[in-house]
C-alpha cells in the first residue's frame, strides 16, 4: 500500500501583455516546496480597507511558469503517475482552473502543433511504449471517455451516433452495488491494441464533444471530461491479474459568481457557477477535516465517479492552471486556495490484484485430484470403475515418452491408482509382444534374402552405409535450401500484399493528402443532414483507421502529391469521401463560394495550411525513409542469401571430399555476418524513426480533421445566423462587392418563413449571404435610408429559384456574371449597377 497526499502542481499560462508580469512571483529557493506569490496590484488592494492584504503565498509541489513546455509538464507530472499505473496502482490527474486558464491545453493539448500535444496523447504514447518493451507480461488496454454536463453523464465514444447535441449521445448513469462500488452503466469501453487506436479514440471523443456543443449548453466550459485508460496485466501461467485505471480529467471552468472585487470577504462568498464543483469542494473540505465520518461523495455524479481519486485507492495529482492577469487575480487566488485544501487529502493506493477465476479452477481441479490420490493410499480403498478413454490415451502417451526417453533414470509416474498401474503393465506387455512378432518376421525375411543373394561382405556393407550417410546429408541440405526458397517467396508475397494494403490505406483516408484541404463543402438543402454525414465521415474514418492499423502497423505513408488526385477516388462503395464528393458536386454555387471565402478568412485556415505543409514535409521524409528501409531490407536479404550459399558451398565441399567441416572459421562468412549485423542495426534505427514519424503524421491528420469539422460547424452556424439576420434587415445595404447569391431550398424557405426578429446582428460581417426572398409586406416596411431603398424595384439579390435544375443553373450563372460586373463597377459607376438590378428580376421571372 502506498500512502500519499494528493500532489499539487501549478501551471501559469503565458500572458499576452508584458506588463502583467509584476502580478506574481515564484520563489523556488526553498528546495522542497516552492512558493507562488500573487501580488495584488495597488489599485485593487486599496479598495478593501478592512481586509487589506498585498500578497498571497501558496505552496505547490512544483510551479511551472509561462515558458514550461508540454514535454516538461508530461515528464514532471504525468510520467510518474503513468509509471505507477503500469505498476498496477490507480492514478488520476485533474486540471482545475477558470475557463481559459489552460486546462484543456494541459490535459489534451493545443489544436495546432504536434509539439502542443498534451498529457493524454503523451501518456498513451509512453504507456504503449512501456508495454511493448515488457514482453513477459500479457497486457490489455481499454479506453473510455465520459462527459458530465449538468449532472448527466454522456458517452463520448459512441460510434453509432451522429450526435448534433449532447442529448443525442448515450446517457451514462451511476449504479452502486451492495459493496458501494460505483458502476457506470452505458459507458462503452473500447479496446486499444496500439497507441494509434487509442489516439483515434481520443480524437473521436473530442470531435463528438465539439459537435455536441451548442451555444446554449457551453459544454466545453461547463462540463467535466474524464478520459480513462484501463490497464490489465497478467504473467503467463499465473492466475493473478492486475487492473489499474488512469483518469485524466479536464474539469469545468472554476469561475465563480459575485465577481465584484478582490478581498478575503468577497472571495469566500463567491459561489461556483458549476454546481458539481461546489460539491467537489465540499468533498475536499470534508476529507481535509480530521475525523470526519461522512464524506458527501454522492451529491454529484462527478464526485461519485472520482470517489477513489479523492481520498481513496488512487495516486492523485492536481494541476492548478492559472491565467495570471490583473482581471483574473481573484479567480487565480481561489484556484490556489482550492489547491491548498486538496493538498491535505491523503490517499491510500493499493495494488489492484485479483485472481483469474478460470485459471484458479484449473489449479484447484489439479489439487483435488492429487488429494484424492493421496487419500486413496491412506485408506487403501481402490477405485473399481473402468478408466475413461481420455485417461487411457493419457497413459499411453506417458508410456511412449517413457520408452523414448534415453535417460536411464527416467520414471513412469502414474500415481497410486492400481487401475492405471495395471493398464501400464498390460500396455507394455502388448508392445513387447508386437515387437517380438515383428522381429521374427524381419529375421525370416533376412534369411530369405540371404538364401537368394550372396552374403554381403563386411567391407562392402560399411561402404554402402557411408554412401547412404552422404546421401542423407545431401538430402538434408537440399531440403533446407528448398525451405529457404519457399520462405523467401512467401516473404516477397507478403511484402507486395503489404504494399497494396498500404495503398488502400492512403486511398481511403477521409481527407486525402492529395487534397489535404479536402474541406467538406455542403449543399444548402440540408445543413443538418450534411453535418451528420460529415460527422459520420469523420467517425468512420477514425474507426476505419482503427481497423487498418491492425493490418499495417508501420506502413510507409504516400506523399500527398504522388499523383494528381488518385487518393480522392473512393475505393469501395459507401466510401465517405465518395459521398462528400457527390455532395460537393450537388452543392449550390453560392454556398460553395461563401464557404470558400469563409474558409479563407477563418483564423484556423492558417493552422490547417501550416499543418498541411508540415504534413507534406513529414510525408516526404517518411517516404524517403521508407525507401531506405526497403533498400536495407533487400540488402539484408541479399546478405543472408550470400551467407547461406557460402555455408552450403562449404558443407558441399566437405561432403563431396568426405572431410569434416573445416574447424577454422570461414573469414568471408564472418565478414558477411558482421555486415548483416550492421544492416540489421541500421534497419532497426530507421524503423524506429519511421514509427515515430508515423505517429506524428497520424496526430497531425487527426488535428486537421478536427479543425475541419470545427470550421464546417462554425460555417453552418454563421450561415444560418446571417441568413436570418439578413431577412430581418433586408433589403440590406450589403457591401456590393460581397453580395453572394443565395440559392433557395425547401428547408431554407421553411426556416426563413418564420419571423426571427430578435436576431439582427449583421454588423461587422465580412461576407454575407444574400437575403432570402421576403414577403412583400416586410419588404415595404423597410425603413432603410440606403440608396437601394430609393429604388422602386426590389434589389436583385434575393432570387427565387424555379426548382428546375437547368433553369436554376442558368440563373446562378447569371448571378455570378452579375456579381463579377458588380465587383468591377460598384466603386466607380453606381448607376449602371442599378440599371442592372432593375433589369434582372424581370429577366428572371
Ligand atoms: P480551458 O480549457 O482552461 O478553458 P484552454 O486550454 O482552452 O483553457 O486555453 C485557452 C487558450 O489558451 C487556448 O487557445 C490555448 O491554446 C491557450 N493556452 C493555454 N495554455 C497555454 C500554454 N501553456 N501555452 C500556450 N497556449 C496556451
Ligand atoms: Mg477547456
In short:
With 845 residues, the chain is α/β, with parallel strands linked by helices. The protein has 23 helices and 19 strands.
Describe, in plain words, how this protein is organized in 3D.
- With 845 residues, the protein is of the alpha/beta class.
- Helix 2 (70-86) packs across helix 4, helix 5 packs antiparallel against helix 15 and helix 5 (195-212) packs parallel to helix 19 (667-729).
- It is extended and about 120 Å long.
- The N and C termini lie far apart (83 Å).
- Adenosine-5'-diphosphate is lined by residues 13-14, 97, 99-105, 110, 253, 321.
- Magnesium ion binds next to helix 3.
What topology emerges from the helices and strands here?
Blueprint: E1 2-5, E2 7-12, E3 24-27, E4 35-39, H1 42-45, E5 55-59, E6 62-64, H2 70-86, E7 91-96, H3 103-107, H4 119-133, E8 138-149, E9 152-155, E10 171-176, E11 182-185, E12 190-191, H5 195-212, H6 219-222, E13 224-234, E14 240-250, H7 264-269, H8 275-288, H9 301-305, E15 315-322, H10 329-342, E16 346-349, E17 353-355, H11 357-379, H12 389-404, H13 418-452, H14 458-507, H15 527-551, H16 576-586, H17 589-601, H18 603-656, H19 667-729, E18 739-740, H20 746-752, E19 768-769, H21 776-781, H22 805-825, H23 830-844
Parallel strand pairs: 2-6, 2-15, 7-14, 7-15, 18-19
Antiparallel strand pairs: 1-16, 3-4, 4-5, 8-9, 8-12, 8-13, 9-10, 10-11, 13-14, 14-17
Amino acid at each position: 500500500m502506498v500512502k500519499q497526499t494528493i500532489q499539487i502542481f501549478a501551471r501559469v499560462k503565458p500572458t499576452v501583455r508584458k506588463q502583467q508580469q509584476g502580478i506574481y512571483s515564484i520563489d523556488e529557493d526553498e528546495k522542497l516546496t516552492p512558493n507562488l506569490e500573487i501580488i495584488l496590484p495597488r489599485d485593487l488592494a486599496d479598495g478593501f480597507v478592512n481586509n487589506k492584504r498585498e500578497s498571497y503565498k501558496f505552496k505547490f509541489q512544483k510551479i511551472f511558469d509561462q515558458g514550461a513546455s508540454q514535454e516538461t509538464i508530461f515528464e514532471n507530472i504525468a510520467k510518474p503517475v503513468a509509471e505507477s499505473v503500469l505498476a498496477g496502482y490507480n492514478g488520476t490527474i485533474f486540471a482545475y482552473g477558470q475557463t481559459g486558464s489552460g486546462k484543456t491545453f494541459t490535459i489534451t493539448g493545443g489544436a495546432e502543433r504536434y509539439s502542443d500535444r498534451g498529457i493524454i496523447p503523451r501518456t498513451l504514447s509512453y504507456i504503449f511504449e512501456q508495454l511493448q518493451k515488457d514482453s513477459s507480461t500479457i497486457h490489455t488496454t481499454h479506453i473510455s471517455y465520459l462527459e458530465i454536463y449538468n449532472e448527466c453523464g454522456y458517452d463520448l465514444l459512441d460510434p453509432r451516433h451522429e450526435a448534433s447535441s449532447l442529448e443525442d449521445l448515450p446517457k451514462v448513469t451511476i449504479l452502486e452495488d451492495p459493496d458501494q462500488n460505483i458502476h457506470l452503466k452505458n459507458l462503452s469501453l473500447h479496446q486499444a491494441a496500439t497507441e494509434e487506436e487509442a489516439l483515434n479514440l481520443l480524437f473521436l471523443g473530442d470531435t463528438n464533444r465539439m459537435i455536441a456543443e451548442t451555444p446554449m449548453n457551453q459544454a466545453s466550459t461547463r462540463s467535466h471530461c474524464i478520459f480513462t485508460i484501463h490497464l490489465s496485466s497478467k504473467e503467463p501461467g499465473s492466475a493473478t491479474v492486475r487492473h489499474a485505471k488512469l483518469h485524466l480529467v479536464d474539469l469545468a471552468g472554476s469561475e465563480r459568481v459575485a465577481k465584484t472585487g478582490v478581498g478575503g470577504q468577497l472571495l469566500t462568498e463567491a459561489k461556483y457557477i458549476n454546481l458539481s464543483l461546489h460539491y467537489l469542494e465540499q468533498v475536499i473540505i470534508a476529507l481535509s477535516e480530521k475525523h470526519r465520518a461522512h464524506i458527501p461523495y454522492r451529491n454529484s455524479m462527478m464526485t461519485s465517479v472520482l470517489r477513489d481519486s479523492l481520498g481513496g485507492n488512487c495516486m492523485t495529482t492536481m494541476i492548478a492552471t492559472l491565467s495570471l492577469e490583473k482581471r483574473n487575480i481573484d479567480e487565480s487566488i481561489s484556484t490556489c486556495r482550492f489547491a491548498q485544501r486538496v493538498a491535505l487529502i491523503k490517499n491510500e493506493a493499493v495494488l489492484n490484484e485479483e485472481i483469474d477465476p478460470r485459471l484458479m479452477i484449473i489449479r484447484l481441479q489439479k489439487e483435488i485430484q492429487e488429494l484424492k490420490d493421496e487419500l486413496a493410499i491412506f485408506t487403501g480403498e481402490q477405485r473399481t470403475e473402468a478408466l475413461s478413454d481420455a485417461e487411457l490415451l493419457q497413459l499411453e502417451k506417458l508410456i511412449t515418452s517413457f520408452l523414448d526417453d534415453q535417460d536411464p533414470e527416467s520414471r513412469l509416474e502414474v500415481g497410486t491408482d492400481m487401475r492405471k498401474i495395471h493398464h501400464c503393465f498390460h500396455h507394455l506387455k502388448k508392445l513387447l509382444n508386437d515387437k517380438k512378432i515383428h522381429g521374427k518376421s524381419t529375421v525370416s525375411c533376412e534369411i530369405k534374402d540371404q538364401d537368394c543373394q550372396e552374403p554381403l561382405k563386411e567391407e562392402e556393407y560399411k561402404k554402402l552405409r557411408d554412401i547412404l550417410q552422404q546421401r542423407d546429408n545431401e538430402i538434408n541440405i537440399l531440403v533446407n535450401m528448398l525451405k529457404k526458397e519457399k520462405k523467401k517467396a512467401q516473404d516477397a508475397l507478403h511484402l507486395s500484399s503489404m504494399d497494396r494494403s498500404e495503398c488502400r490505406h492512403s486511398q481511403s483516408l477521409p481527407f486525402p493528402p492529395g487534397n489535404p484541404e479536402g474541406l467538406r463543402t455542403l449543399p444548402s438543402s440540408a445543413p443538418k443532414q450534411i453535418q451528420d454525414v460529415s460527422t459520420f465521415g469523420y467517425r468512420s474514418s477514425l474507426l476505419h483507421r482503427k481497423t487498418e492499423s491492425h493490418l499495417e502497423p508501420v506502413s510507409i505513408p504516400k506523399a500527398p502529391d504522388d499523383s494528381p488526385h488518385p487518393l480522392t477516388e473512393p475505393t469501395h462503395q459507401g466510401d465517405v469521401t465518395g459521398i462528400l464528393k457527390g455532395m460537393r458536386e450537388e452543392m449550390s454555387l453560392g454556398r460553395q463560394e461563401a464557404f470558400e471565402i469563409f474558409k479563407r478568412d477563418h483564423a484556423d485556415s492558417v493552422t490547417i495550411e501550416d499543418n498541411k505543409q508540415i504534413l507534406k514535409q513529414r510525408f516526404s521524409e517518411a517516404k524517403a525513409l521508407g525507401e531506405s528501409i526497403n533498400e536495407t531490407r533487400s540488402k539484408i536479404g541479399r546478405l543472408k542469401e550470400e551467407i547461406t550459399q557460402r555455408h552450403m558451398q562449404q558443407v558441399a565441399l566437405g561432403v563431396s571430399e568426405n572431410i569434416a567441416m573445416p574447424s577454422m572459421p570461414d573469414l568471408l562468412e564472418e565478414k558477411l555476418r558482421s555486415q548483416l549485423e550492421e544492416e540489421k542495426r541500421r534497419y532497426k534505427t530507421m524503423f524506429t524513426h519511421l514509427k515515430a514519424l508515423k505517429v506524428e503524421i497520424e496526430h497531425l491528420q487527426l488535428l486537421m480533421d478536427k479543425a475541419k469539422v470545427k470550421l464546417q460547424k462554425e460555417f453552418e452556424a454563421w450561415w444560418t445566423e446571417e441568413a436570418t439576420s439578413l431577412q430581418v434587415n433586408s433589403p440590406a445595404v450589403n457591401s456590393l462587392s460581397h453580395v453572394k447569391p443565395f440559392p433557395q431550398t425547401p428547408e431554407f424557405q421553411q426556416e426563413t418563413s418564420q419571423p426571427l426578429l430578435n436576431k439582427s446582428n449583421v454588423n461587422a460581417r465580412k461576407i454575407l449571404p444574400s437575403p432570402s426572398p421576403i414577403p412583400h409586406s416586410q419588404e415595404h416596411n423597410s425603413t432603410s435610408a440606403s440608396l437601394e431603398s430609393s429604388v422602386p424595384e426590389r434589389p436583385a439579390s434575393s432570387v427565387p429559384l424555379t426548382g428546375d435544375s437547368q433553369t436554376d443553373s442558368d440563373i446562378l450563372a447569371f448571378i455570378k456574371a452579375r456579381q463579377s460586373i458588380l465587383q468591377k463597377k460598384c466603386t466607380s459607376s453606381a448607376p449602371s449597377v442599378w440599371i442592372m438590378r432593375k433589369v434582372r428580376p424581370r429577366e428572371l421571372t
